[in-house]
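Late entry, written up from scratch paper. The run itself happened at the end of the previous shift, but nothing got recorded in the book at the time, so transcribing now.
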Amino acid sequence: MMHMPQDSSRRKRTAIILLSPGIKSHIGPHRLYVNMAERYSKDGYVVLRFDFHGLADSEGDVEETFVADIYGSIEQGRYVDDVLAAMDYLENEQGIGRIVLGGLCGGAITGLIAGSFDSRVVGLIGLGIPVINASTPMNQSKYMTAGQAASLRSSYFEKLRDVSAWKRFFSFKSDYRIIWRILFKKSAPSSVQPAGISPAPDCGTKQAVENSLNDSNVNMLFPQAFHKMVSSSRRLLLIFSEMDRLYWEFNEKFWQPYMQIYQDKMSFIDVRILKNANHIISSPDSQKEMLDWTSGWLEENHS
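Output as recorded:
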């Protein structure tokens, strides 16, 4: 679906491509992508929405049996070639060679990896971008961040008076490792708050940090693509929902160790937190705030 500016005289030199989230279609959850495209086209941008091969209205096959394996392959760049083809199409049909990629979750990480390969990408709008490997068999209790555990702890204490919660606890269907981790894992430092990003310790070089992350479940393509984008002065707007575990994973597993490395590039990195929002930004108020943020960011950096 191609959205053209209503006023051709206001057409921008930059186009926007919205990339499908995970195995969802170009419509997005709760018509998120439709609302985004309509907003940006009113602002003067040509906006393209499309389905990756094998998904929704596009031809092709998906051979994986498990959804987690599809997500894992997306995080490894499964649909990057589709994005490059879409950029070729926009350049050939609309004469636009400056592209901002945008997307939720799998669409965000696809855009980041694609942008690291192609200089036509001048920016990324990443909503709830994942930093871990979805398909890696993992012990969730082992990799749960301190901030995520602290956030969940209060909700667990509220369930102490819930009879149904106790019935489930004694049914042996609960993951007791996760419960133990939530209740007894040390809280995150007081500087780690959902409303912002805490400062990083003195962590040395980028290579030293990557070596330390290799022992975690971090998707190493993320820091590599992030570095390529930022070091070449492309702008990143990363928006996370406060109620989404992906925020804690980004903050504690990537941003805190890496922040100091990018002190001289902070003008290209914009990280924001949507208060009281869920992963798919289904609340109309949260969606409006996100649209206002992204529209303002586009006007400031790519108008």
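The longest helix spans residues 284-302.
(Scratch paper discarded after transcription.)
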